[in-house]
Every structure is written in C-alpha cells, then in structure tokens.
Design brief:
Layout lengths: L2 H6 L5 H9 L6 E4 L6 E5 L9 E5 L2 E2 L4 H8 L1 H10 L7 E5 L1 H7 L5 H11 L3 E5 L9 E3 L2 H12 L4 E6 L4 E8 L2 E9 L2 E3 L6 H14 L11 H9 L13 E3 L11 E4 L6 H13 L4 E9 L8 E8 L5 H4 L3 H19 L1
Antiparallel strand pairs: 1-2, 2-3, 3-4, 5-8, 6-7, 6-8, 9-10, 9-14, 10-13, 11-12, 14-15
C-alpha cells in the first residue's frame, strides 16, 4: 500500500461498509479484505448475474470502463475532450515540474506557467492535474502566491493546471446511466463571527462539531490556502470577526476541505439534468460526478456555466456525514448502483 493510499485511508472507508450493509437487499454478498478494509468483492446471486463477481477499491466500482475512468482522472485530458465536444470548460493549461520537463523534453515549466497566469490575468486557479478532495487547489493573486502554490503542488505531483477564475455557485450532479440520482450545492469552508472569538478559535469549534457528527473532515490551521485567503481579506487567524459576519477560509468548495452541502436533487432544472446525463455518456461513463460552476442558480434554466471536472468515482464520504437525510440519500444511491451492476 502506497503512502498516498495510507493518507486517504481514513477518508475512504464509507463505500466498503455501506456496500456490505445494503448488498443483501438485492441478494448479493460483500467480502472485504480485512487488513485495510478498502478493497472488496461483490458476489451477485440472482438472475442472469448469479455467481458473477465484481470488485471495488476505495470509491471505485466495476461500473465505468477503465479507459474512460483514466481520462476522467486526468483533468487536463478530460478538459481537452469536453472542449472538443463543445462543452463550456474553464480556460487553462497544464505545466510540468522541472524534473518532468527534462524527462519529456518540454519547456512548460513553472516559469512558463507564471507567464501564462499573467496572460490570463490574476487571480488564477492553480491545482494538481490529478487527485481529489480539493487537495492542493489554490486561488492566487500575485507572483509570490503563485510560486508558493505551484512549488507546493510539485512536491507531490508532476503536472499542475493553471486556470482562469470563474465565479458562481458550485454544484455536483451525480449521474447513473440515464438518470440524475443526486445533486447538491457545495459551499466553501467558512465561519461566522460571534464578536468574541478569533478565527482560529471558531475553526477549532467547527472541527469539534465535525467530530461530534462523526464527520472525519480535518481542518488544518497551517493550510497555506487559508493563509492566502485570510491575507487577501486583511485578516489573520488571530482576527476577531464581528458578530454575524461570515468569513470564507477557502475558495474550493469540497466537503473534504470543510465545506457544507445543500441538497438540490429535486429542484434541479431539467436542462441541467440533461446536460449532466449527456456529458456522462459522452465521456464514456455510466457513474459520474459532474462538477459545475453556475452563474445564477441550478434551479433556473442554464444561461452561463462551466464544467469544472468530471469524476468517475464520486466519493460521497463527507456528504453522507452531513446529516441523516444525506445518509439515506447515499444509501439509496448506492443501492441503485448495485442494481445497475447486477444487470
């Protein structure tokens, strides 16, 4: 097991236990590898699939084709194909660490990335080309922040994306075959001032609430992105916000980074549902999380929006722990996934 696998372990235990719980409802049986508990085998018993076995690892099931899944994991390639098919994507480009530039004979190093960022116009987004949970996603406003961010990314990754900033509401739509089975708005990590406590103290209180609710999100007070976000607002961890004032600590809205979720499955406009289903099919996927940035509201007919990413293994670990209603939604979602796999 790799270091990255170990790091993700505590965030990846939902699916195995959830499948073990719900599989008997369709007459299936789940066997989980006991040491790490992140991989497993599903044995289907009924109908034409009787005796057939399927496997899963972390949040990845035997549902999507391997090639399509690999393309979806590579944000730059996924963007390339989505743009080619006419989808509204975010303007950007991939750049490489010095070591990887030498390996592949490219001049697209971090200095070329900075020149590209200046051409796009600050602020810009800098993020790893692969990875999930919003890790390493930076909004940078100047040269100093840019180089700090891209050097941080290149410690772990060899490819970074530099993208134009687009603004609006952040949504994830989860598609299974021809249906939208879940949709929710993602709101970035924030705190609300009480007029007495510092931002640091309020973040610690929020972390305690996460723990009390069995949500395994970890807020890292030394996160470079939090420092950038606060500095841009002329704030620091020691600052005491006035009562009722909301302060945003991150720009990306991933639930794993401490963000919140608002379920919008029922009121999603039909045109957005059609868009998500079509994009899932066009990307060669059956099960997909479509991430959108929408100007306005997803309940209204689409006017201006961007496809941020597609995710072939849309983990719902953090979403399921935001409430009992969300837990039920996720159980029903994966029950539909199992039924689809059994056919």
């Amino acid at each position: 097991m790799t270091l990255m696998s170990t790091r993700r372990l505590h965030e990846s235990l939902l699916l195995p236990r959830l499948l073990e719980k719900i599989a008997p409802k369709i007459g299936a049986k789940v066997f989980i590898e006991p040491e790490w508990g992140v991989v497993g085998q599903i044995t289907f018993k009924g109908g034409r699939s009787a005796g057939r076995r399927s496997y899963f690892r972390y949040n990845t099931l035997d549902l999507n084709p391997v090639g399509a899944s690999d393309v979806a994991k590579d944000k730059d390639y996924a963007n390339f194909f989505m743009k080619h098919m006419g989808y509204a994507t975010v303007e950007g480009s991939a750049f490489y660490s010095d070591h990887w530039c030498k390996k592949i004979g490219s001049k697209k190093n971090m200095h070329a990335a900075y020149r590209f960022a200046r051409k796009l116009g600050f602020p810009v987004i800098v993020k790893p080309n692969e990875g999930s949970h919003g890790m390493g996603v930076f909004l940078v406003h100047n040269r100093r922040q840019f180089y700090r961010a891209i050097k941080f990314i290149f410690k772990e990754d060899r490819v970074a994306l530099v993208q134009k900033l687009v603004q609006g509401k952040d949504y994830r739509i989860v598609v299974l075959d021809t249906k939208v089975i879940s949709a929710y708005e993602r709101i970035p990590l924030s705190i609300v001032g009480d007029g007495r406590s510092s931002i640091k103290e309020l973040l610690k209180k929020k972390q305690k609430r996460f723990r009390a609710g069995s949500r395994d999100t970890r807020i890292h007070l030394d996160d470079l992105r939090i420092a950038h976000k606060l500095a841009y607002q002329n704030l620091a961890l020691r600052s005491v916000p006035e009562r009722g004032k909301r302060i945003y600590l991150l720009d990306n809205a991933n639930l794993s980074s401490g963000g919140d979720a608002v379920d919008v499955t029922k009121p999603v406009h039909p045109e957005f549902k059609k868009l998500a289903v079509k994009l899932t099919r066009d990307m060669g996927l059956r099960f997909c999380g479509v991430d959108l940035m929408v100007e306005g509201d997803i309940r209204q007919k689409p006017k201006k929006y961007w496809v941020l990413e597609v995710n072939a293994a849309p983990g719902l670990d953090h979403y399921v722990k935001t409430g009992l209603a969300q837990q039920k939604i996720v159980e029903n979602l994966y029950l539909k996934v199992l039924k689809s796999m059994s056919r």
